[in-house]
Amino acid sequence: MASTFSLLSPSYNAISLQSHNYHRPAPFKLLRRLLAIGPNRKYYPNTFDDNGIEKFQQIHCQATRDGKHQHQDLKGETGNYEGESKVKIVEPKFKMSLAELLHESKVVPLSVYGDLEVEITGIQQDSTEVKAGDLFVCCVGSRSYGRLYLSEAHRRGAVAFIASKGTEIEDTLGSKALVIVEDANSVLPSLAAAFYGYPSKNMTVIAITGTNGKTTTTYLIKGLYEARGVRIGLLGTIAYYIHGDNKLELESPLTTPDAAAVQNLMAKMLHNGAEAVVMEASSHGLTLGRCSQVDFNIAVFTNFTRDHLDFHGTMDEYKKAKAKLFQRMVDPERHRKVVNIDDPNAHFFIAQGNPEVPLVSFAIDNKNADVHAPEFELSLSGTWILVNTPSGVLEISSSLLGRHNIYNILATVAVGIAVGAPLEDIGRGIEKVEAVPGRCEVIDEGQPFGVIVDYAHTPDAVSSLLDFVRELAPKRIITVIGCGGDRDQEKRPIMAKISTDKSEVTILTSDNPRNEDPLDILDDMLAGVEWTMQDYLKHGENDYHPPLPNGHQFYVHPNRRVAIRKAIAMGEEGDMIVIAGKGHETYIIRGDEKELFDDREECRDALKYVDELRYAKQE
Ligand SMILES: Nc1ncnc2c1ncn2[C@@H]1O[C@H](COP(=O)(O)OP(=O)(O)OP(=O)(O)O)[C@@H](O)[C@H]1O
Ligand SMILES: [Mg+2]
């Protein structure tokens, strides 16, 4: 591979940790001369047959039309559509009778009760969110629970109800409009799409599937469209944006919201002038049909590795769930596939849907990719990439860190190529994204060692993260890592093994224990290093623990705060401390309760008192 890494000396903190501004390291200058690249980002257009692109633009994608997008003002309340200012978001109003909705959505009832002419003003599948005037669609697995949810929705003011056959219904609902269908879960997407006016048909919808990198890539694609002057909404793990900076204040949104929320949010985006939406199509979301009525245009595949086997059972089922997105790519004029062909599963995804649908592939290793990075440099202060594309060569300097983020950047370039965006806009849009919360976030309080907080919570993500950190040539890597409760148990020992193989010191700790005992989760992780909790406890929590056969050390601290403090207290000049697993999250989930907890704040706090912590450690 033709990459050159800027290897950081143990005293790199002086240059890189004091400032997050991206400094182009010296080797860039040489590379620049060799490639005759000027001081600013340059691109070299070549001849690329863009007939297909023109057609795609004409048929669907307003986001890619030539010239600056002329935005329609909404009562003069628009802001800067490059996403830099807040504007007042206008709440759209919807109204339809239940009879009209059944007709429009083509839902066939098994039986109906009450007045179908009742007017509904919203659709909800979550009984706790029901407002007066809503239609409540009772989508529970267990029929008896349905009864409870229906009563709650009724109390909150629902005016009409849809439930599956066999659901227990309270007598008090008797006078209301009630529709019984074969399976309420399966009709919800059609009802919601019809009620909110099929918003996705009037926007370009870019959906990203894959085990890792979805959230990061959505942020980059948002940057790309905004650089084209296009309003774009975003639905993903960290937040939902109507467009620009207009984020909905939600504590922990679902990566892919439920079908009613997906349609409602898209309708809101459209009403507020968005012309595109980028979303994470999670395997849960795809399996549960949350986006089954979303009119996707571009499907992006990032990678496929182990995760979520608690939900899908086998890797094969997990892959099939992800494939559902690509199966929807059937129209060569309206659809595009964007695929990482370094991933061994690429061909499986490419083969889904219609083979005639244009594909834009991307890769670092596979030189045959349409979008390929022959050269790149990684450092703790940023990433430089040279990208070959069918439209020419593009040079990108991004403040996102790590080799894995090169893939996310290439995926974004490939989307830009798929929609015919000029290289200059693609580069500008990507460079504009300075950080994605909790993704390789550098915590800098002026300490002489590096601290990174990252959301890596799959074996592959932990492995790529630690490989990147190793490339920075730290003196030691000290990793704090845990695994979530009520989720895939088999990944626990694998993650512990990866961490102890790739870090000089590992501190195993709790993530979100949910309804499991944190010690049981740690026991599962310990199996990865052929220990048990009993073996471990024999040595006492703060005693010397014999190193692993590879000479690496590990400790166990179920309390995440203690684990983070211990790691920070160990930090010495030239070390890199990695806090993995929770990234942007601002809470720990114990049982059904959320307690405030933010790895980034914990690190900052610990760094303020690092001397005291060290002193305490020695005592
Ligand atoms: N392209 C990639 N390849 C491998 N690992 C990645 C990639 N992008 C990000 N990661 C790692 O995965 C973690 C999660 O990244 P991100 O949130 O973008 O992924 P995601 O697919 O949205 O995850 P989730 O399914 O949990 O929402 C990052 O913190 C990083 O460690
Ligand atoms: Mg995500």
UniProtKB/TrEMBL annotation:
Gene3D superfamilies xref list: Mur ligase, C-terminal domain, Mur-like, catalytic domain, MurE/MurF, N-terminal domain
Signal sequence extent: none
Location of the Mur ligase central domain: 208-415
Domain (Mur ligase N-terminal catalytic) ranges: 119-196
Superkingdom: Eukaryota
Domain Mur ligase C-terminal: 438-583
Family: Belongs to the MurCDEF family. MurE subfamily.
Annotated protein name in UniProt: Uncharacterized protein
